[in-house]
């Protein structure tokens, strides 16, 4: 019996190690993502940061830059035209979500008709979140959570009845409110800085490499507070253990 439990412990350690490695370079199971990351030399404009290793296709990257694309039929201009300086952050947010292979440690199950997985509590760098808020504070919106509650009867998102269009700075009084609430806690505001290896960057210079590779590695090795086990652990470990019991 002691030998069996020793084998189980060793197997658990091996499976956990394999799972940690797998989450360092993976694509989530969602609407437009590739099944595996790889080079995409023709990524468009702001998405080009991920051309060497991407979860998005060139066509997806092109659509990410449209005001209302086929990706999700989402209209940025639901309360009037969104200023370009604000829109660039939402484009970059879309590029990160669609293209990055470094979000594995924060992939969670999603109970929706259009995706099986989502990201949850990705630690966003302080500068990325605060600049996003600063450039969007005077843009106009009618909702705090953009994931749900829209009127979709026209085929695109419209403000629900009774809502009021008002500046972001009133809907999201602080940078943390914007980054955490707008996409149902997909991101988490942090006080960590770019280049410190502890937060995900939306913006970086690809000539210097992708800094999010090291960030994903750090969190895969050290875990995160109140996080579910990585997907690979959930899938592999129970079956392996049960086979030895």
From TrEMBL:
Organism per entry: Chrysemys picta bellii
Protein name stated in the entry: Juno
Keyword Mitochondrion: no
Pfam families in alphabetical order: Folate_rec
Keywords, alphabetical: Disulfide bond, Signal
Highest taxon of source: Eukaryota
Signal peptide as annotated in the record: none
MF GO annotations: signaling receptor activity
Organism ancestry: Eukaryota, Metazoa, Chordata, Craniata, Vertebrata
InterPro entries from the UniProt entry: Folate_rcpt, Folate_rcpt-like
CC terms in the record's Gene Ontology section: external side of plasma membrane
Family (UniProt): Belongs to the folate receptor family.
């Amino acid at each position: 019996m002691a030998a069996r439990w020793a084998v189980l412990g060793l197997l658990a350690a091996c499976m956990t190690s394999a799972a940690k490695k797998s989450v360092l370079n993976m694509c989530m199971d969602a609407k437009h993502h590739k099944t595996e990351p790889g080079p995409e030399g023709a990524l468009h404009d702001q998405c080009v940061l991920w051309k060497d290793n991407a979860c998005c296709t060139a066509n997806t990257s092109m659509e990410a830059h449209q005001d209302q694309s086929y990706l999700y039929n989402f209209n940025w201009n639901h309360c009037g035209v969104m200023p370009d300086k604000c829109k660039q952050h939402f484009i970059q947010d879309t590029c990160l979500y669609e293209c990055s292979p470094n979000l594995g440690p924060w992939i969670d199950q999603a109970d929706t008709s259009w995706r099986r997985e989502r990201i949850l509590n990705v630690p966003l760098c302080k500068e990325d979140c605060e600049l996003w808020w600063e450039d969007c504070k005077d843009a106009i919106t009618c909702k705090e959570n953009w994931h749900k509650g829209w009127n979709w009867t026209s085929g695109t998102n419209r403000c629900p009845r009774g809502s009021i269009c008002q500046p972001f700075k009133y809907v999201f009084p602080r940078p943390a409110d914007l980054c955490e609430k707008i996409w149902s806690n997909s991101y988490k505001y942090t006080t960590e800085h770019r280049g410190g290896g502890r937060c995900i960057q939306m913006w970086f210079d690809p000539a210097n490499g992708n800094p999010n590779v090291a960030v994903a590695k750090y969190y895969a090795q050290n875990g995160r507070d109140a996080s579910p086990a990585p997907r690979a652990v959930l899938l592999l470990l129970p079956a392996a253990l049960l086979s030895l019991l």
